[in-house]
Write a structure and sequence with these properties.
With 533 residues, this protein is an alpha+beta fold. It folds into three domains: 186 residues, no CATH class; 121 residues, Alpha-Beta Plaits, CATH 3.30.70.2510; 108 residues, Alpha-Beta Plaits. The protein is 31% helix and 23% strand. Strands 6, 9, 10, 11, 12, 13, 14, 15, 16 and 17 form a ten-stranded mixed β-sheet that branches. The protein has a three-stranded mixed β-sheet with strand order 3-4-5. A two-stranded antiparallel sheet has the order 1-2. Helix 1 crosses helix 2 and helix 6 packs across helix 8. About 10% of the residues have low confidence. Belongs to the pseudouridine synthase Pus10 family. Its main location: cytoplasm. GO terms for molecular function: metal ion binding; RNA binding; tRNA pseudouridine(55) synthase activity. It catalyses: uridine(54) in tRNA = pseudouridine(54) in tRNA; uridine(55) in tRNA = pseudouridine(55) in tRNA.
C-alpha cells in the first residue's frame, strides 16, 4: 500500500501552487507505486485535495486504496541545513505562501504541467493510447510482445532540475535530504501508466527484451529558448553535428546540467519553473522490428555476374548480382526496409562457384513478417531457384545474429578448392607439368594485386598452396586443381601479376602462363548446417 505522509504536505502544497500536475507531485514525493500513477487524473487531483484538507499534525497517512508493489521512499537520514533563501541574484525565487490550502486548490485546475509539459497528463489518456495503437496496427507487423520507448524534449531535464532544487529546499527545512535519484524518473512513471494500456489494446504483453519496439518522440516548441542559457554557460557541451537539426540534444543538455553550478543555474532559469505556453506534441509514432537473419549457400553458374552490384563512378556495369537475385525475394517475403549481405569470401565476376556453394548471410532490417516455418523457408528457396538460371541456393534457414560470426571465424585458416584452365605461350607436354602434383605446402608472397589496389591496402601477404593436381589438355592448355589457404589470389598465382606474386605458375614452368577460366569447387566452412532439402 502506497501513501503520502504528513511530511509530504508542504511539498504537495508547494508544487500544486506552482502549477505541477498530480503525477509529477507523486514523483517528487518519491512515491513508487506503479498502480497509483495509473489512477485517473481527476481522481488523483481529488485525492491530493483531500490530503491537503487533512490537518492532523501527527504523522498519520491518507492512503490511496489500491494494491501496490513496494514503495520507493526517500531516505530519512538527517542532513545539513538547506540553503538559505537566496535573492534574485543567486536565487531561489520567493514562492507565494502555500500555507493556505485554498490557494493551492484554486491553482490546481487542469493546465499544462510546469515540469512534465503535459506528458503525464494528456498523453496518458485513452485517446492517445488508441492513436498509438492505430499506428502500430496500420503498419502491419507480426509481433508477440513489444517494448515501449519514449524520447522526451530536452528541456524537461532543465525543468526537472529547477523543480528538484525547489523541493530540496523545502525538504531541507524539515531536516530531510532529497537526492536526484530519489525522485521517480519521468520516463519510468510514464511507462508504468502506458504499458498496461498498450498491452490491453494490442493484445500482447510488454517485454523489455522484445524485438518489436513501439516508440514515441515528443517535442516542444520552446526547447531552444529554454536551453539557450546552458549553451552560454557550457559552450563545450553543445557542438554542432551534421546529422542533428539542433545542438540541444537530450545528452548535451544532461551533460551541461551536470557541469553547471547550482547558483549559475538559478541565475538563469526560474525556480519554480514557469507554466509553459503550450503542450508537448507527439512528433513521431514509430514501429520497428528487430532484424531477422537468413543464411544459406549459393552456387553461381554465370561468368558474367558479380557477387554484389558492380558500380564504377556511379555507373552500373551489369544489370544484376548474386546479392540482388537472392535478396529481392527475401525482401518481398519478409517485407523488410533494407538488407545487408555478407559471405565467406567472394568470387570475381567471371568466376563460377560450384560444389556445395559459398556460405552467405543476409540481415533483413525492420521486417514486417517474421514467422517462417522450415517449410516456408524451403518454399522460399525454391522460389529463388526458379527465378534464375545464374544462381541456386541451398540450406536456406533462419539463424541468429551470433551464429553469423561462425561464417567469419578463422577465415584465413580455412581452405578453398579451385579448378583453373591455364594457357602457356610455349608448347608443353604432360611430363612438363606433372611435377606440380608433387609440390606440397608451397609458400607464396603476394603483393596486393594491381586489379584490387584501388580497394585494398598495399601489403605483402603470405599464402599457402596446400596441394596441386595437373590435368593435361593439349600443347598450350592444362587444367590445374588447387587446394589453397583462403584469401589466396589464384589468378595472380598463375600469371604472376608482373612479378608481384612469387613463386607463380609461370616461374615454375619457366614460361608465360595465363588463366582462362577459374571455378571455385569448394569453400570449406562448416556453416550453415546442411539441411535435408
Amino acid at each position: 500500500m502506497s501513501s503520502l505522509t504528513e511530511k509530504d504536505r508542504p511539498i504537495v502544497q508547494l508544487l500544486l501552487n506552482t502549477g505541477t500536475c498530480p503525477r509529477c507531485i507523486l514523483r517528487f514525493c518519491c512515491v513508487g507505486s506503479q498502480t497509483l500513477y495509473r489512477c485517473p487524473y481527476k481522481d488523483l487531483m481529488k485525492d491530493l485535495k483531500e490530503f491537503l484538507k487533512n490537518n492532523q499534525e501527527k504523522e498519520d497517512t491518507v492512503c490511496f486504496d489500491v494494491a501496490d508493489p513496494p514503495c520507493k521512499r526517500i531516505r530519512l537520514e538527517h542532513t545539513e541545513e538547506g540553503p538559505d533563501e537566496l535573492n534574485h541574484n543567486g536565487a531561489l525565487q520567493q514562492i507565494p505562501s502555500v500555507n493556505n490550502e485554498n490557494t493551492a486548490m484554486e491553482n490546481s485546475a487542469v493546465k499544462v504541467c510546469n515540469v512534465c509539459l503535459g506528458i503525464l497528463q494528456e498523453f496518458c489518456e485513452a485517446d492517445f493510447v488508441k492513436k498509438v495503437c492505430q499506428k502500430v496496427n496500420s503498419a502491419d507487423y507480426q509481433f508477440t510482445s513489444f517494448v515501449f520507448s519514449v524520447s522526451l524534449p530536452p528541456q524537461l531535464s532543465v525543468r526537472e532540475r529547477a523543480a528538484w532544487l525547489l523541493v530540496k529546499q523545502e525538504m531541507g527545512k524539515l531536516g530531510l535530504p532529497l537526492a536526484k535519484d530519489d525522485i521517480v524518473q519521468l520516463k519510468e512513471a510514464y511507462k508504468w501508466i502506458i504499458h498496461p494500456q498498450l498491452s490491453e489494446e494490442l493484445g500482447v504483453p510488454a517485454d523489455g527484451k522484445s524485438l518489436f519496439e513501439v516508440s514515441v518522440v515528443f517535442a516542444h516548441p520552446e526547447t531552444e529558448e529554454e536551453c539557450r542559457f546552458l549553451a552560454t554557460a557550457c559552450p563545450d557541451c553543445f557542438k554542432p553535428a551534421k546529422n542533428k537539426q539542433s545542438v540541444f540534444t537530450r545528452m548535451a543538455v544532461i551533460k551541461a546540467l551536470e557541469k553547471i553550478k547550482e547558483e549559475d543555474f538559478l541565475k538563469h532559469f526560474p525556480c519554480p519553473p514557469t507554466s509553459p505556453k503550450s503542450l508537448c506534441v507527439a512528433l513521431e509514432i514509430q514501429c520497428n522490428n528487430g532484424a531477422v537473419f537468413v543464411a544459406g549457400r549459393y552456387n553461381k553458374y554465370s561468368r558474367n555476374l558479380p557477387q554484389t552490384p558492380w558500380i564504377i563512378d556511379g555507373e552500373r556495369k551489369l544489370e544484376s548480382s548474386v546479392e540482388e537475385l537472392i535478396s529481392e525475394h527475401l525482401m518481398a517475403e519478409f517485407k523488410a526496409d533494407s538488407f545487408n549481405f555478407s559471405s565467406s569470401g567472394r568470387e570475381d565476376v567471371d568466376v563460377r562457384t560450384l560444389g556445395n556453394g559459398r556460405p552467405f548471410a543476409i540481415e533483413l532490417v525492420n521486417p514486417r513478417r517474421i514467422r517462417f516455418t522450415a517449410e516456408d523457408m524451403k518454399g522460399l528457396q525454391q522460389t529463388i531457384n526458379n527465378s534464375s538460371d545464374k544462381i541456386q541456393v541451398r540450406d536456406l534457414q533462419l539463424v541468429t545474429r551470433s551464429a553469423i560470426g561462425r561464417m567469419k571465424e578463422g577465415e584465413e585458416e580455412k581452405t578453398k578448392t579451385y579448378s583453373a584452365l591455364i594457357w602457356t605461350d610455349k608448347a608443353i607436354q604432360k611430363e612438363d607439368i606433372v611435377f606440380l602434383d608433387d609440390i606440397k605446402e608451397l609458400k607464396l608472397d603476394q603483393k596486393t594485386p594491381l586489379r584490387v589496389l584501388h580497394r585494398r591496402p598495399l601489403a605483402v601477404r603470405c599464402r599457402i598452396i596446400h596441394t596441386m593436381r595437373s590435368e593435361y589438355i593439349d600443347e598450350h592448355h592444362f587444367r590445374l586443381h588447387l587446394k589453397t589457404q583462403a584469401g589466396t589470389y589464384i589468378k595472380e598465382f598463375v600469371h604472376g601479376d608482373f612479378g608481384r606474386t612469387k613463386p607463380n605458375i609461370g616461374s615454375l614452368l619457366n614460361r608465360t602462363a595465363d588463366i582462362l577460366e577459374l571455378d571455385v569447387e569448394s569453400v570449406d566452412v562448416d556453416w550453415p548446417p546442411a539441411l535435408d532439402n
